[in-house]
Amino acid sequence: MSALSALPFLKPVHLRSPRSSPGGQRRHTLPASEFRCLSPEDAVSVFEIEREAFTSVSGDCPLHLDEIRHFLNLCPELSLGWFEEGRLVAFIIGSLWDQERLSQAALTLHKPQGSAVHIHVLAVHRTFRQQGKGSILMWRYLQYLRCLPFARRVLLMCEDFLVPFYQKCGFEALGPCEVMVGELAFVEMQHPVRGHAFMRRNSGC
Question: Fewer C-beta within 10 Å: the chain N or C terminus?
Fold first, then answer.
């Protein structure tokens, strides 16, 4: 059994009852809300949301389409998408990193032996912003990581104005990140992943 299939918080929630067609036969309906790991087939939908969310603010995307496909091929288990009736509305993409702090190489590399999960991007579709979906998705992602035996901490880099959001999610600021993207500077943040054994015993992981 995969870690995903064992985690109740990654299974569809608020399932809609099957509707009847005019002929009296039951018609299949998609889950009202579903959380699952992303696949390379989701890359275009991911990029469309990311491009709209970031280019108007910073002028560029954390991940370009080929990089999204790259990570979703290498480590799809470190991604999480939120789907409403089959439509992607928010997502996180991560990879593994094997050093104490992030460096420029962390933007493109996945280190399979690493114990730090580097979150490259979290984005919410414009129609679903200001509804708390980013916080909920991050909470579910952190709960999922606690069931992965190799995950010990989570790292990310963000601009100053996003620091309060991530602090509310439980992250602490480590100081300026050495990574630069053009002229943009970032704050590096960390969240410990604790209670691995307890979570595994009590969640079926």
Answer: N
